Amino acid sequence: MSDQNRTMQDVLQDRLVTIQKISEATAEHLRLVQRQGGIQVLDLVDAEDAQNATDLDRNEKALDGCEATIASLERRLAELDREIEAMADGGPV
């Protein structure tokens, strides 16, 4: 539950930080998707190169982790939005 002593400014600051983290994680996700495409092209050229399979597997795991991070941050953002809404309505946080 939220700290009862938090001000609207505190919550908005947390929201801003969370949005920045989402932006960073989304940029990393895009980089990984682009890297995956590059590895797949290399794999088309030389399907017998075991390094491509290793790189693709490593990249897939990184993508999964990145997607989990984004999902977690989006849940946090939703919590903050509910907190802001409750504060704006004057109700319990």
List keywords for this structure.
single chain, 93 residues, 0% strand
Structure described in brief:
The protein has 93 residues and is mostly helical. It is built from 2 helices and no strands.
Oligomer: single chain
Number of helices: 2
Distance between the termini: 8 Å
Form type: rod-shaped
Number of strands: 0
Rg, alpha carbons: 20 Å
Question: How much of the residues is beta strand, in percent?
Answer: under 5%
Average pLDDT, all residues: 93
Which class best fits the helix and strand makeup? mainly alpha
Largest sheet: none
Helix content: over 70%
Which blocks of ≥5 consecutive residues have pLDDT under 50?
none
Order of helices and strands: HH
Structure overview:
With 93 residues, the protein is an all-alpha fold. The protein contains 2 helices and no strands. The protein has helices at residues 8-45, 50-89.
